[in-house]
Amino acid sequence: MAKETWNRVDGQARAGSIVQAQSIGQLHVYGPEGAVSAPCQLPPELAHFEDRADEQARVLEAVAEGSGSGGGPLVVALSGMGGVGKTALGFRLARELRQRGSCPDGVLHVDLDDLRRDGAVEVADALGGLIGSLDPETAVARSFADRARQYWDLTQDKRLVVVVDNAQSGAEVQPLLPSSSAGVVIVTSHGPLYDLDGARSVELPIGPLSGEDAVSLLRATVADSRLVADPEAAAELARRCEGLPAALQVAGRWVRKHRHRELRRLVEELTAELHRNGLPVVEAVWDAAYAGLDPDAARLYRLLPHHPGPVVTGHVAAALLGVGLERAEDALAELETAGLLQRRPDGLGMHALLRGHALRRAGRRSEDGEAAAGRHRLVRWYRRQAGRADLLAAGPRLTVSGPVPDGPAQGEAPDVEFTDKYRAMHWLESERLALYGCVRIAYEDGLDADAVALCEALWTHFLDHQHYADVTDAFGHGVAAAVRAGDIAAIVRMRCQLARPLWEKHRYQEAAEELRLAVNGSGLLGDEPPARKLRASAIEFRGKLASVQGDWAAAAPDFEAARQEHLAIGNDYGVMLQTYLLGRAAVGMGEPGRGVELLTQAHAMATALGRERMTSRTGFELGGALRLAGRREEAARLYEAALAGARARDSVQDELRVLETLVEFCEESGDEGGADGHRAAVRELRERTGDARPAE
After folding, report:
1. 653/428: higher pLDDT
2. 176 burial class (0-12, 13-18, 19+ CB within 10 angstroms)?
3. HEC states along 138-181?
4. CA 217, CA 209: separation in Å to the nearest integer?
5. Shared-domain flag, residues 304 and 408
6. Which of 276, 507, 534, 603 could bridge to 502 as Cys pair (CB 3.0-4.6 Å)?
7. Residue at 22 is within a domain
8. Cβ-based neighbours of 200, under 8 Å, separated by 6 or more
9. Last residue of a domain, one of 205, 234, 255
10. Cα 508 from chain centroid?
11. Neighbours of 260 (CB within 10 A)
């Protein structure tokens, strides 16, 4: 009798990855089609890291003990004063867990200070960033609740490490916890997070390094024989840094720069600087590093706190300084060498403590207008780049700010190179924090026209990227700037733009008030074609607000009024758009016959104008009206054409909407095979975009 053979699979295995055979010659195992590699958002490892051995051991032990247990992810809470090395320790722990194989599904990082506005974080934006990092192909949902569900679905059963920097409360962190109990979340904060509920946690208060460890880090940083030859002076220098790793790094570079001075003399000079200026001890180190900078680098250091983005590029530095790119890049390199800028995963940035120091240094020169001049150059450079990017990405459209300003003169900050509309759209998203911040700067500095122009350039970007905290803040400042300037056209435009994010956040009453004021203001614009076009836009916005609340009877008169304005000025696209909206309103009010008539007109106009997107959309809506009117064969042809159009434009949302309609349409016709085919396509599309709802 043949010997019994037992087959067993231990551990975890992904579906489709188990192979059984009597004998194997060659074996090739491939991942699933379209598989995304695990993200690793860790910055370069620090060259020198001292101590924290006890903290690391506690975390590694907790991870080992909690492996496979329930109760949610393990939360490692690192708290302590700024500059004490919390973030460095968090990244060190994440890297160690990755090397040990504890997080095969990736390491994510989010800095909440990058998303903070007036002390508050829009957690939905943080969720959107994490979702995009886990699956770049996912279409991020608009609402907070839907984003939370997407995040839970993407993190289910995943062994992830998520590093959350600069939390101010547990409420900011709670929604960012992955759904898997195998995950680890490393949180840094200035103080304990008492309101972080329902999580397994290890709380680690992080204090300054001990004297011995501080000296060891200083010696590792500079490797200077003077630190060994004169241990007392080395200890005194380390003591002046009060055990803060950020200060010790700068002190080490300072010692290395002045290699020919006696160490005790350097300590004495540092002490004298402290006594002379009355600054905190740690600032004396940064003062010494600042004092050794060339003029361009020193001026850039004083100006950098006014840059609202987390990362500074050569182009940004050039705009702040008002010089060419080469000089700006040299200044950036000098600041990095001096330890006054730090490397982040996404580029060079300024530590929060150093930002405060730079502002204090700039305060001594405030009388010469240096800061105001740098801020104004930065705002106008970003205005030009945003205008160029928007024009390339969205094409010509209604604006009140006029054309993009002229290009830079020789020796000034150059333009960003946009080779195509996709690069332009990517730049707008990557620079959004700086762009929205520049709207606020423009308003604060009285640059009202620049604030409005930046908001207009960000409109199309907002429609594709719903960063609600940023856009509501920016468009609110746009309204205020337009009101202060007394520019009626700008007031109308800005109030309409602000209304859209308000109603998408279900703040309908606030949106209605903005649109009431916009429509009233549009009546003061006169009868020239641009004024009438803007008035039609304001009325259309009011109609859309009614439609999103399901009040088609209130929406229809506004769409008709806007249509008459476009007819009067001969704006064919506007006439087509309002006819389309009127057709949808007719269907919404239970008048499919009237809807067929209007949508037939809109579809013909969109086709004649060569507007592919609107040709597809008007055809789809016309199909729905024909279906209600019993003209199913005509409806079927339009649905199929709309599906082809959506796929040609790679419009996932339009494709999904058409497919779901086709499922219902086939079921009504008794075509179960067709319904099953479309249902499978819906399922595949939802899986690809991160929408876990089943196809009904």
Report:
1. 428
2. buried
3. CCCCCCHHHHHHHHHHHHCCCCCEEEEEEECCHHHHHHHCCCCC
4. 9
5. yes
6. 507
7. no
8. 62, 66, 69, 71, 72, 73, 74, 75
9. 205
10. 25
11. 4
At residue 500's C-alpha, the angle toward residues 495 and 506, to 5°, is: 120
Q: What does the alpha-carbon distance between residue 191 and residue 173 come to, in Å, rounded to a whole number?
A: 14
The domain that contains 101 carries what CATH number? Answer: 3.40.50.300
Write down which residue in 251, 269, 291 finishes a domain. Answer: 291
- From the list 495, 455, 483, the residue with the least C-alpha distance to 471 is 455
Both 424 and 442 in one domain: the answer is: yes
Structure token digits, residue 556: 């229809």
Tokens of 443: 């308003």
Q: Which two tokens stand for residue 436?
A: 């929205």
Mapping DSSP to helix (H, G, I), strand (E, B) and coil, where does residue 188 land? strand
Residue 126 and residue 65 share a domain: yes
Distance CA 357, CA 335 (A): 14
Co-location of 268 and 384 in the same domain: no
Distance CA 602, CA 461 (A): 26
Please indicate, yes or no, if residue 59 is contained in any of the structural domains.
yes
pLDDT at 507: 95
d(CA 206, CA 40): 25
Average pLDDT, the chain: 83
Give dist(CA 574, CA 448) in Å, integer. Answer: 29
User: Where is mean pLDDT largest: 102-106, 219-223, 344-348?
Assistant: 102-106
The number of domains in the chain is 3
Q: Is 47 exposed, middle or buried (0-12, 13-18, 19+ CB in 10 A)?
A: exposed
- Distance separating alpha carbons of residues 550 and 302, to the nearest angstrom: 53
68-97: string of b/e by CB count within 10 Å (b at 16+)? eeeebbbbbbbbbeebbbbbbbbbbbbbeb
| pLDDT tens figures, 479-508 | 999 999 999 999 999 999 999 999 999 999
* Residue found by looking up tokens 């010692």 in the block: 255
Helix segments in 402-551, DSSP class H:
421-430, 432-444, 448-457, 459-464, 468-485, 488-504, 508-522, 529-548
Per DSSP, which regions of 335-377 are E strands?
342-344, 347-349
Residue owning tokens 């949302």: 653
Q: Which of 437, 423, 327 is nearest to 382 (CA)?
A: 437
Instruction: Determine contact, residues 545/512, Cβ cutoff 8 Å.
Output: yes
Q: What is the model's pTM?
A: 0.69
Write out pLDDT tens, residues 91-144. Answer: 888 888 888 888 888 899 999 888 888 778 888 999 999 998 898 888 888 889
Q: What is the pLDDT of residues 132-184, one digit of tens each?
A: 889 888 888 888 999 999 999 999 989 899 999 888 888 899 999 998 888 89
What is the domain extent for residue 117? Answer: 53-205
CA distance 416 to 407: 11
Q: How far apart are CA 191 and CA 167, in angstroms?
A: 9
pLDDT band at 594 (very low <50, low <70, confident <90, very high): very high
Beta bridge partners of 349: 342
Q: What does the DSSP 8-state code read for residue 465?
A: S
Q: Report CA-CA distances (Å) from 618 to 203, 225, 577.
A: 57, 77, 9
